[in-house]
Amino acid sequence: MSELKTVEHVEIERYLGTWYEIARFPQRFERDLVGVTATYSLLPDGKVRVLNSGHKGRLDGELRSAEGKARVVDPKTNAKLRVTFFWPFEGNYWILELGKEYEYALVGDESRKYLWVLSRTPQMEEGVYNELLGRAKEKGFDISKLEKVPQKQA
Q1: Distances in Å between the alpha carbon of 132 and those of 9, 32, 119, 124, 136?
Q2: Which secondary structure element, helix H or strand E, spans residue 130, and what is its range?
Q3: Domain of residue 38, residue span
Q4: Which of 12, 39, 53, 146 is most enclosed, with most CB atoms within 10 A?
Q5: How many Cα atoms are found within 13 Å in the side-chain-facing hemisphere of 76?
Q6: Is residue 4 part of a domain?
Q7: How far apart are the C-alpha atoms of 143 and 148, rounded to whole Å?
Q8: Residue 88 confidence (pLDDT) above 80
Q9: Prediction pTM value
Q10: Residue range 58-70, pLDDT digits in tens
């Protein structure tokens, strides 16, 4: 499998804030969650606080949250991070595509077992979504595994 390239540079401060999960590869830790968001904020030690939230089963279902930390492992690009929710287990978080205005992101890792399509808004234009799917496919991801994540209307 070819080397997985990330974006050339990420301004961490611009990446902070809330992202809506538009689509994902199914993962055990997100099973039955809809309306999923990830909110990133800077910690005093330079790491990033990660707060993932989603509703169980339906958009008005019980809110579930998990808090973790991320650290940059490639300071040249800031595009490769390691995230931990349950120490000492860490996972890769690679920013593969990023909108010019940080309006969307495609996140995965070199194993190609993880993939997320993220947006700053609860809905994403179909054209942008399809473009990101094409780029993911070019990068070697099996996009047939992607499942859309229901979000509340903006």
Answers
A1: 18, 24, 11, 11, 6
A2: helix 126-138
A3: 12-148
A4: 146
A5: 3
A6: no
A7: 11
A8: no
A9: 0.95
A10: 999 999 999 999 9
